[in-house]
Design brief:
The protein has 255 residues and is of the alpha+beta class. The chain is built from 3 helices and 18 strands. Strands 1, 3, 4, 5, 8, 9 and 10 form a 7-stranded mixed β-sheet that branches. Strands 13, 14, 16, 17 and 18 form a 5-stranded antiparallel β-sheet that branches. Strands 2-7-6 form a 3-stranded antiparallel β-sheet, with no helix packed on it. The longest helix has 41 residues.
């Protein structure tokens, strides 16, 4: 008898583990105070019973002509269940409402479950430069950091000086080349499903202030000298003509 009981207990546990492993887990995120809406998978027949669970606890229940719609535990007065579609709405969500939500329609447990996670606004990030990074390094790594434990899935963006934001990863490697050496500052942006925040710009450790190109100076000076060489005879002719005109006026006056 003991062997038989142990066998069936083991079988039940294995069946439960198999069902969970085959579940389709859908992640959904909410902010504190949000209204959450959960939809069951469509069913072909008319719905006659609905039971929603949060983890292993009963959340909302309805059975046609037998059990009036009711909610339970901490969800009391915060739910709305559509008995035609099975869609569940929960108002004023809090961190305590995080968990795994599942539904049973017409006495059939659905394979799709929801993993509900609270999400917070992203903090203001900070750009940090890895050690041993200076103007002589071949490259440097920048990291966009912040306390993002409850920020959910994140996207990262980077900006050079006052340029456009470009999506990238949390870390960015910059090579020490002529293009990078002209960049004065780097900034990063964090973005999640509900908010975004930008860092303060940091100085580029690879920045090098460029001095005027001597070759260009020589070219400009040569151009100026050539122009003067062309204009000098004209200027001399104008001066000579002006001088002669002045002398002529003087002679006419004395006459």
């Amino acid at each position: 008898m003991k062997t038989s009981v142990g066998f069936w207990l083991l079988a039940v546990l294995l069946l439960a583990a198999s069902s969970f492993s085959q579940a389709q887990i859908v992640k959904k995120y909410f902010e504190d105070g949000d209204t959450l809406q959960l939809s069951p998978q469509p069913v072909s027949e008319k719905i006659t019973s609905i039971v929603w669970y949060c983890d292993e606890y009963l959340l909302a229940e309805w059975v046609k002509d037998l059990i009036e719609l009711r909610d339970h535990i901490s969800f009391k007065g915060r739910t709305n269940l559509n008995t035609d579609t099975g869609v569940l709405e929960i108002r004023d969500m809090t961190a305590a409402d995080s968990g795994v939500y599942s539904v049973e329609i017409n006495n059939q447990v659905q394979s799709q479950v929801y993993k509900i996670v609270e999400i917070e606004d992203v903090p203001q990030p900070e750009v940090k430069v890895t050690l041993l990074c200076n103007s002589t390094s071949e490259s440097c790594k920048l990291v966009c950091e912040g306390d993002v434990n409850k920020a959910g899935p994140l996207e990262y963006f980077w900006k050079k000086d006052d340029g456009e934001w470009e999506q990238s990863g949390q870390k960015m490697e910059v090579l020490n080349n002529e293009e990078t050496q002209r960049v004065k500052t780097f900034s990063c942006r964090m973005k999640n499903l509900v908010s975004e925040s930008d860092s303060e710009p940091i100085d580029n450790p690879l920045y090098q202030e460029k001095t005027p190109d001597c070759g260009l100076c020589v070219t400009l000076l040569d151009a100026v000298m050539r122009s003067l060489a062309v204009l000098a005879p004209c200027w001399a002719a104008v001066c000579l003509w002006t001088k002669r005109k002045t002398l002529c006026k003087c002679r006419n006056t004395h006459s």
